[in-house]
Design brief:
With 578 residues, the chain is of the alpha+beta class. 31% of the residues lie in helices and 22% in strands. It folds into 3 domains: 28 residues, no CATH class; 181 residues, Alpha-Beta Complex (Dipeptide-binding Protein, domain 1); 216 residues, Dipeptide-binding Protein, domain 3. A hairpin with a 2-residue loop joins strand 8 and strand 9. The longest helix is centred in the C-terminal third of the chain and has 18 residues.
Amino acid sequence: MRLTSTKKSLMDKSFLLLFFKKEALASLLAATLLTTPALAQKPQYGGNLEIGTVYATISALSFDPADFAWKLNHDTGLYLETLFAGDLEKSLRKGGKYSFKPDAWLATDSLKGELAESWAWSDNPLKLTIKLRQGIMWPEKPGVMKSREFVADDVVFSFNRQNNSPKRFPDYYDYVAKVEATDPHTVVFHMNYFNADWDYRFGWGYYSQIMPKELADAGPANWKNATGTGPFQLTEYLQGNAQAYTKNPIYWDKEKIDGTDYKLPFVDKVTYRIIKDEATQHAAIRTGKLDILEAIRWQAVDNLKKSAPGLKWSRWLSYSGIFLSMRVDTKPFDDIRVRRALNYAVNKPEIVKEYYGGNAELFAYPQHPDYIGYFQKLEDMPASVKELFEYNPEKAKKLLAEAGYPKGFTFKTQVCSCSPENMDLLPLIAGYLEQIGVKIEVQPMEYGAFLSAMTSLTNAPGYFMANGHTNPTRTLHKSFTPGQAWNPSQWNDPAYNAKMDQVFRTRDEATRQRLVQEMTVEILDRAPYIWLPVPYYYTAWWPWVKNYDGELRVGAVKPGPIYARMWIDQDLKKKMGH
């Protein structure tokens, strides 16, 4: 009887809605449907997913893993798989405890095999033995390769290619003595010593993709040669416009829903839309041209909720820290008094309240609150760290005078024009610093030139950026040890480097957590950056996107397995006017 009443109510409302415009019809009907008791629904195959990803403003940087471009898993991870990935069965949506939103962190108990079926450590000698899934096939790619089975030699080849790349990060794989295939489906990693980031570095991290030798021979930098064992295959690339991935008909994985296994992927095609203008992004999600928009600044949320009330939402604390880096190998930033003074001069609580409207956390970098066991709250830290997040311009002036700069100074700061938020925020920081006599010469740069300045060690004394947290250990390693691409402050302290090495060699995670907390306090206290609040972002999607609850990554910036498990409710989409 209740169902009959519900149907009648919907019919009455649908009749009335005919008098409204199309967009109003879609929004009101969406709200009605979302409050109606839902019947069990089987997955549907077909359709295209249009996505404005977390990196909607940036085209692919490279399609070749040996280039060590940070965005590789985002762009190649739909067709190139890794040994491990996050287990979505342990997601919040499935009753687990993980959001699967961090950019490059997977808790130990959230890990599952992707190309790997099982793995085990053994000592004396130290080695890791990985059993690979059998029956996984590389699809045929005309001009590149015939279809064949994925085997252990592919893992050995991929690791050695990465390890021999001239663009490899220093010491990145030095703990691995050699990798060998002991049979077609077994790979053994022989270790020089233990490294706590072993799984991240070659198992599911930024540069862990497994590729066939045939692709390397054909030229992986050319997107037209792209092929892999993943759920989709790259079939279109228009720089600055779109990247399209089409269903891999011989993909191996399945999704269990209500006790039934379903072959993946559900959708026929996934398209990344590259949209640099925020207003255009918002218009695209509001009108249904995008099914999902993964990163929306808080300022736009209320308006979108009013103009498109049918959208579903997820809020997440950014996995990138925002800061103004100061080159400690350049005067005046070689003096800690100057660096601390600039921190005191910026009213960070006011930024949280006024600039972000409360949609930010005063402290959440370099460790992220999601890093359970590693993150330490600001209130639990020493007073010398706490005061860096308090506004004290008088103390700032006093320290500058002590350092020999009673009238302040001027310095150049580079910022990427690709980030609307950073372009908006830097003038505010400059305004605070002017109150103590310090002036910033702002140099906006396109993304390629901006990134190159840091990686070539030619960046200006000031460098304003957002940088990913990555994971609890790597966030310190990549940013505050020498030779790393993401070290704009040029921090190089032998004692700190030794502590970092100790962290990586520590097998007990509880001990490692304590060491990481100590190192985090130390680097905060020494202030190579002006530490800034971390904002919240929002993800919006239309309710016709099913089997999804705002998850973003199951590896280092890797969304492929998430997209493979989504399906589109075509009937609902039509009822909503799209």
